[in-house]
Amino acid sequence: MIKKMQEAFSHDIDIHTKTASEVFDTPIDEVTKLQRSEAKAVNFGIIYGISDYGLSQNLNIPRKRAKEYIENYLNTYPQIKKYMKDIVKKAKEEGFVNTIFNRRRYVPEINSKNFNVRSFGERVALNTPIQGSAADIIKFAMINSYENLKKAKVDAKIVLQIHDEIIIEASKKDLTKAKEILKSSMEEAVKLKVPLLVDIDSGDSMYESK
Q: What EC number(s) does the entry state (predicted)?
């Protein structure tokens, strides 16, 4: 991960605001909601190999402007541009990509002669190490949470996992303890170069605690 992004995560700085500040050359405390929203779309779009056309559709902006956003982003973060090229190159040579925990996904499409199929393979190669690694982390967090809740003998249980969220049911008498266990279990699930920070909320229904 590049140094600027590492510093943002380490100091609990909103990554989309940080990206907007860098890409739009704006002081971080002057970044507008629109700039943050557009930077967020670029942040997530890049890992899916989004095109200037795709970004223009997502943001409802001219294609030329979308292309400038992508170019500015990759020029601002040349390490990401290099990472993307290296991942695609390696996938073409080896036929697969790995998550950070070495879970493998084969990508036969990446060497297809069909442009659309090959482009799909390239997007898979780019996205799998990122989204696949995130999926690995949440699974470790679920195991950690289950074991720690059980060990503490609190009246709480995991009922659902949605993307990067773990939802538990807990009795009111054990609510505070269960929240503490869930938070620490998720944050300590794996060790990375940046901290894994978790927000915890509670309520009488999923709607109240969202």
A: 2.7.7.7
Whether 143 is in a domain gets the answer: no
pLDDT on residue 210 = 66
| pTM confidence score | 0.84
For residue 167, is it within any domain? no
* Domain count across the chain: 1
In a domain, 176, yes or no: no
Give yes or no for a contact between 54 and 41, defined as CB atoms under 8 angstroms apart: no
Cβ atoms of 122 and 88 closer than 8 Å: yes
